[in-house]
Amino acid sequence: MPDTFLDSMTSPARQTRRQVLWQQNLNEDKESVFVADQAGEVVGFISGGSSTFARYDAELFTLYLLKSGQGGGIGRALMQILAADLAARGHTSLMLWVLDINPARTFYEHLGGVVIGEKTEAVTGGELHEVAYGWADLRALL
């Protein structure tokens, strides 16, 4: 990822915009968000909601885990709780976008995700190459 792009992600204006967006989405119930903690410390979170991708009606927007939260089933548990929540909201399928160089791709494949698309986005200082994974039946994650 280009350094100039990463620098732009942490600008005060960008942080303010992200904070407003999170507050809006949570207040308007547009997005499902779940947080994982260990001994009172946040180790990860996941969010998802409606998708604009043609064949999939739900999208995983974010899944972040600290190194200390990886490898112990927390990621799988977060995926399951998000899938259950999305299913309860009437969604039947799920997709996500991930950078092509992200080692988490193997996690999604292990959970049964299949590659359903690719794209390249121009960003400040370069390009990002992304891969889409999908689950045609959301119940596969439950």
TrEMBL record:
Domain N-acetyltransferase: start-end pairs: 1-140
Keywords: Transferase
An annotated Gene Ontology molecular function: acyltransferase activity, transferring groups other than amino-acyl groups
Any matching Pfam family: Acetyltransf_1
Domain of life: Bacteria
InterPro entries in the record: Acyl_CoA_acyltransferase, GNAT_dom
The protein's name: GNAT family N-acetyltransferase
Species name: Deinococcus psychrotolerans
